[in-house]
Write a structure and sequence with these properties.
By secondary structure, the protein is α/β, with parallel strands linked by helices. The chain is built from twelve helices and nine strands. The longest helix has 41 residues.
């Protein structure tokens, strides 16, 4: 009888042990599933007002600019009533480059900022022989770079005609294929809001700048006056996509561009992000009541 009891107890222990193991495996599986689900969520971001996976955003943004490349400059004139030209002129004036500047112009595919940089240097007069200026036009979209190259040739922005060395580079702002501390100035105009990880873009900007180098960003921002913001929203959402359809034959890319502006951090938040990347003496200047802002910082 005692033998049966001992055997029964052993069987009960085995069963309980097996049951506990099954429970542990089940809990482990559930935990892994939860972690995977949270990991998937953490890899989501916004594309305009939509929530998408990070990889999907990269593809969608690439498609947007590939689609609008040919009409990009014409649409800029139409959307801003030509004011974007003044914003960019002021942007270069604030940069105030000197002969010998080595500029990296990121998201600069069509050359708007780079050409203004070359013009600014030209207006300074003859460069000293030991002061070779250069600009590397960097964009993740080859179609935009191709448009810029054609414009450069047509308008005479070549080293032979200007004395400024111009390079064209297809590269991702979040992981630039460039060496450390190789530029004295970094500009990005109307491009950083389209990047998935703004913090990584800023970290890369800091990495490629030499000590004393300057970071400058021109980007759409938020108006401090709520009434003016409302009027601006009406124009943005009701007019700009329509212009995109009429001029470029594209509605959705310009709907996205309007939405992406609303998702971008405000001036103070973006200033903090620039400081977090290591830049010092960080400032911003509102243009046209805050429709856009110029952000600036130095690598000390």
């Amino acid at each position: 009888m005692s033998f049966i009891t001992r055997k029964t107890l052993r069987l009960l222990k085995i069963r309980n042990s097996t049951h506990s193991s099954c429970k542990l495996r089940q809990l482990s599986t559930q935990t892994k599933a939860t972690l995977n689900e949270e990991s998937d969520k953490s890899k989501q971001t916004h594309f305009g007002f939509k929530t998408v996976n990070e990889e999907e955003k990269w593809k969608k943004v690439h498609e947007v600019f590939e689609t609008v490349a040919e009409k990009y400059d014409v649409m800029n004139d139409a959307m801003s009533l030509g004011i974007h030209r003044i914003w960019k002129d002021i942007f270069i004036q604030r940069l105030a480059p000197t002969h010998g500047t080595k500029l990296l112009d990121v998201a600069g595919g069509t050359g708007d900022i780079s050409f203004r940089y070359i013009d600014y240097l030209k207006n300074l007069g003859q460069a000293p022989e030991n002061k070779q200026s250069s600009v590397t036009v960097c964009d993740i979209n080859q179609a935009m770079l191709d448009v810029g190259k054609v414009r450069a040739q047509r308008q005479g922005y070549t080293k032979e005609l200007t004395g400024v060395d111009v390079q064209w580079l297809c590269s991702d702002a979040e992981k630039l294929s460039l060496p450390d501390e190789s530029f004295t100035a970094y500009t990005i105009a109307f491009g950083i809001r389209n990047c998935t990880h703004i913090d990584k873009v800023l970290e890369e900007a800091y990495r490629v700048l030499s000590p004393g180098g300057r970071f400058m960003c021109l980007e759409f921002s938020q108006l401090p006056n709520s009434g003016m913001q409302w009027l601006y929203d009406q124009y943005s959402f009701q007019i700009i996509p329509v212009l995109g359809q009429l001029i470029a034959g594209q509605w959705k890319p310009y709907q996205y561009l309007v939405e992406s502006i609303r998702q971008f951090p405000n001036q103070e938040k973006f200033k903090s992000m620039i400081e977090d990347a290591g830049f010092r003496q960080v400032t911003y200047e509102n243009l046209t009541f805050g429709v856009v802002a110029i952000h600036s910082g130095f690598k000390i």
